[in-house]
Amino acid sequence: MNRDFLKELGLEGEVIDKIMAQNGVDIEKAKGSLKDIESERDALKTQISERDKQLDALKKSSGDAEALKKQIEALQADNQKIKLDSAIDRALTLCKAKNTKAVRALLDLENAEFADDGTIKGLDAQIKALQKENDYLFDVEKKEEAPKMTGVTPSEGADGKPKKITKEEFARMGYSEREKLYEDDKELYDSLKD
User: Fold this and answer.
1) Angle at 87 between CA 81 and CA 89, to 5 degrees
2) In a domain, 142, yes or no
3) Domain for residue 190, yes or no?
């Protein structure tokens, strides 16, 4: 719409100005809507382009899916073997095997697998059998009695009878000797300490 067209219709200038102002507002709204639509269109084009790239990447990798699956299975098997080895070593350490490699060589571990409680099925029985048959492979705690100390106490002579101790001898005695004297002969101790 233009001014000349409105003048030909016989409209006054003030009315034409108001119509033109309103028309300008409508045109600006339409331009804004058009820009929004164009922006939306461009964003959709970008998304479609990205999806096409992703599809191409998927097409290229789909042939490798079987190889990836085999690789994952191999890694899981390796992980299981590492867990088994670790559990076996821990069990051998706990039972005090002197040489875990030597003891391991005597165990039947070909079909070793975990039990529900996290231990290895049959391992304890095999270790106990080895401990009976080959106890030298394990550190076995043997109870030893403490050696009895024999000798002369500070308050006894070589004949085992009470001995007289001089104040000089008492002064040279160490703490443990004085304590022993106190336990054995409190009266003698009391007479010497003054």
Assistant:
1) 100
2) no
3) yes
78 and 127: one domain? Answer: yes
Phi, psi dihedrals of residue 114, rounded to the nearest 5°: -75, 145
Q: What is the pLDDT of residue 97?
A: 87
Question: What per-residue confidence (pLDDT) applies to 174?
Answer: 84
- The pLDDT of residue 146: 57
9 torsion bin: left (phi>0), alpha (psi -120 to 50), beta (else): alpha
Q: Please list the rounded mean pLDDT of every run of 10 residues in the chain (194 residues).
A: 82 87 86 80 83 77 71 82 85 86 87 81 88 86 58 54 75 84 84 77
Region at 164 (left for phi over 0; alpha for psi -120 to 50; beta for the rest):
beta
Q: Under 8 Å CB-to-CB from 192, ≥6 apart: which residues?
A: 165, 167, 170, 181
- The pTM is what? 0.41
| pLDDT of amino acid 110 | 83
Provide the domain limits for residue 34. 3-62
Q: Whole-angstrom Cα distance, residue 113 to residue 83?
A: 10
CA dihedral sign of residues 141, 145, 146, 151: negative
SS3 138: strand
The gap from C-alpha 118 to its chain's centroid, in whole angstroms, comes to 17
Measure CA 158 to chain center: 65
C-beta of residue 76 within 8 angstroms of C-beta of residue 104: no
Nearest to 87 by CA among 136, 121, 126, 135: 121
Considering the domain architecture, whether residues 152 and 174 belong to the same structural domain is answered as: yes
71 shares a domain with 131: yes
